[in-house]
Specification:
With 409 residues, the protein is an alpha+beta fold. The chain has 3 domains: 21-158, DNA methylase specificity domains (Adenine-n6-DNA-methyltransferase TaqI, Chain A, domain 2); 171-210 and 368-409; 218-366, Adenine-n6-DNA-methyltransferase TaqI, Chain A, domain 2, CATH 3.90.220.20. It contains 11 helices and 22 strands. Strand 6 and strand 7 (94-96) form a beta hairpin. The radius of gyration is 25 Å and the shape is elongated.
Length: 409
């Protein structure tokens, strides 16, 4: 005789007992899709009477792009009390507490407030078990898509409304803690950005050990400082995911001033292939993206590893002169003034690309080598603080993920 498995969570608050109720999402929610508005019909500045347009761009970390539209139908308007979830592309991203008209990539999820608490449902939909179910139903095509019937078919379990509210209050406090730590991180990153602007504009200068000014900065074209090399070429999707080679991913280059050694993926490299290997001190550039300000982002590889290659949507640059430090160059190329210059060079309509030939014409500020070292040391200290703060946030998020698994059925 076997014991019956009860529909209860692994971890539970005191004074609550009994099994959780199980129903399909279709029994307790209703969903409707948003509105597709062409980019040409969107506005990027708010005017009276316009509605904020909630798109996938809104979900991008640190995104500066906002869209506004006029006269959307009532059915595609979201209030702060509504829950939205992406149904296609990056399926399963859940948001709430936002107002505006939502894109066709989203579901608006209406729910019975007498039996389901908003924040409980919000966390439940994000829990690993339910979110993984959405992803499996959306499929593995180039653009995953979750339809209404598949969404409604997913089973969820929930307790009494009072226990739901206890759970949602707990996670709200944890989310607030994460939010405060993210604000500290944002402040550090903003301080770094401010110092970059002042140092690379020469408003703020370092002095030598005797308190004397360093020589005036020189100007060189990027092409005078080194040589370029291409990323992986001639590869198909069957070459990735295994093999002895490792390649630095596009997002690794895009996100990090100093590329991370753990954000690499496997690739099969044949013994007869003439692929370019990445070396210590190589500077890496993104060359193609659907977003113009992502093109031309720079990173630097500071690890001694064999069989390291570069994503095909990137190219590399190797310094060949002794009067500029590669790490200084990587930092300068990521400064705000260079970002604006490089973004102007991005060409395209639906996808933006940048020319290596044009990039080599970039005018580079070259300080005296000892000043370059002091600039790098200064930013290294800030980077260490940013890294520690980022890890603190990762630990909190990992803790939350574990609690989501234990406190939901």
């Amino acid at each position: 005789m076997t014991n019956e498995v009860k529909n209860v969570p692994q971890l539970r608050f005191p004074n609550f007992d009994g099994e959780w109720e199980e129903k399909q999402l279709g029994d307790v929610t209703k969903s409707n899709q948003g509105l597709q508005i062409a980019i040409s019909d969107r506005k990027t500045k708010y005017e009276k009477g316009l509605y904020f347009y909630i798109t996938n761009e809104f979900l991008r970390p640190n995104s500066q792009t906002k869209y506004y539209i006029e006269n959307p139908p009532e059915s595609v308007l979201a209030e702060k009390s509504d829950i939205l979830m992406t149904r296609t592309g990056n399926t399963g991203k859940v948001i709430t507490n936002v107002e505006g008209a939502f894109h066709n990539n989203f579901f608006k999820i209406k729910y019975n407030k007498s039996i389901i608490d908003r924040l409980f449902l919000f966390e439940l939909l994000k829990s690993p078990k339910i979110n993984n179910k959405f992803l499996s139903l959306a499929g593995t095509s180039t653009i995953p898509d979750l339809n209404h019937s598949d969404f409604y078919s997913v089973y969820i379990s929930f307790p009494t409304i009072s226990e739901q509210q206890k759970i949602s209050t707990f996670f709200s406090k944890l989310d607030r803690q994460i939010e405060l730590e993210e604000q500290k991180l944002a402040k550090l990153e903003e301080q770094k950005k401010g110092y970059m602007q002042k140092i690379f504009s020469q408003e703020l200068r370092f002095k030598d050990d005797n308190g004397n000014e360093y020589p005036e900065w020189q100007f060189k074209n990027l092409g005078e400082l080194g040589d370029t090399f291409t990323g992986l070429s001639g590869k198909t999707k069957d070459d990735f995911g295994y093999g002895d080679g490792l390649f630095i991913t596009y997002m690794n280059v895009f996100k990090n001033t100093i590329a991370k050694s753990d954000i690499v993926e496997r690739v099969k490299i044949g013994s007869n292939e003439n692929q370019n290997r990445v070396q210590y001190g190589d500077i890496l550039f993104t060359t193609s993206s659907e977003v113009p300000n992502e093109v031309g982002m720079r990173s630097i590889w500071l690890f001694n590893q064999d069989n390291i290659y570069l994503n095909s949507f990137c190219f590399g640059f190797r310094v060949v002169v002794n009067y500029i430090k590669p790490v200084y160059l990587a930092r300068y190329l990521r400064s705000e003034e260079m970002r604006k210059t490089i973004t102007i060079l991005a060409q395209g309509s639906t996808r933006f690309n940048i020319s290596k030939k044009e990039m080599m014409k970039l005018n580079i500020k070259v300080p005296y080598i000892e000043e370059q070292i002091k600039i790098d040391n200064f930013f290294n200290k800030i980077d260490i603080l940013i890294l520690k703060q980022g890890k603190k946030i990762e630990i909190l998020k990992h803790r939350k993920k574990g609690l989501l698994q234990k406190m939901f059925v």
